[in-house]
Amino acid sequence: MTHTLEFWFEFGSTYSYLTAMRIEEAAGARGVSVRWRPFLLGPVFGAQGWNTSPFNIYKAKGDYMWRDMARRAARYGLPFRRLPESGPGAFPQNGLTAARMALVGMEEGWGEAFTRAVYSAEFADGHDIADTTLLQRLAAEAGATGDVLARAQAQGNKDHLKANVEEAFRLGIFGAPSFIVDGDLYWGDDRLEDALDAAAAG
Hints:
The chain is α+β, with helices and mostly antiparallel strands. It has a single domain (3-201), classed as Glutaredoxin, CATH 3.40.30.
């Protein structure tokens, strides 16, 4: 029997990068299927009175995160580049268009590959993922055809992403990556294995 885990991710999230690059292999080893759920952390942070990532608000926490990311990326064999504090591509990056495109991709079968490519472009190569030319190229390389950007910007797809954010609120999600297994919330890349074990156990 195949069990399911929901993987909630935000393109501006450093730790979501670590999860996105390893979740399929880890889930496959346990016989767990993954449902990829892009959403936005901006509204979630806004509800807590924050106008940016807490890693920017609390300097000590931010300094720790960047060092921790470097360690964990090395542990997983993943390239990692710290993002600038200001200017194009600054942390946290604007992942709105990428999230909308990922939603289209999830429906068309190329979303997972696109998501991994966007994360690699951002956190391995230091590119600005608000660049629509970059995103369209990554989508095409992942298997998309036609005018993906137009489909992503269609009102129905925008509403879909908004519904994902509203569902995240209902589920009690407050950060990314988050995992939902049978209604239970697990938060953080370091809880992926716990979530997968729970999903495998059913």
